[in-house]
Amino acid sequence: MKALLVIDVQNGILGVRDFQEELSLIEHIIKDFKHSNNPIIFVRHFDQNEESPLHRGASGSELFSGLKDYADYIIEKKSPSAFYQTTLSSLLEELAVEQLFITGFNTEYCCMFTAISAYDRGYNVTFIENATGTVNNGETYEMGDLDIRDFVGTVLHWSEAIEVLDFEEYEKIYNPSYKK
Question: How much is the pTM?
Fold first, then answer.
């Protein structure tokens, strides 16, 4: 069985910049999974720092209202990996999931760490590069024109362990006949 992970689509992240393109792609993928009755698992991050917009109880920690009703399951986490000290592994085992599709935020932390952790646990992993987004940019890492999504996607692709696709490739491979 396939499952979709929608990572950290929370108000505190979405309020940083315009993520409409990413949200639109994520919603298309969610609808594909709904159409095929495959589980959609939202992952919600909570920071320990009380000043963080993702601190438990802060409005920024809430899941984005435009997508949250699609969630079949919600996993809460406190680290970049959705597997670390969460119930995700047991849920995936219970659902007999073999392949995980990764979408969401922040590409270079939570999406990447979760993808690698999933691979380490024996899952087939598909990382949909342009259905991820980040609040950071090249300046954050003192690398000027760094395209973070492309960089992370390239590293994961070169590993030959994780399938990295853009949305259009995902549609051709996994959903060639379903029309929105």
Answer: 0.88
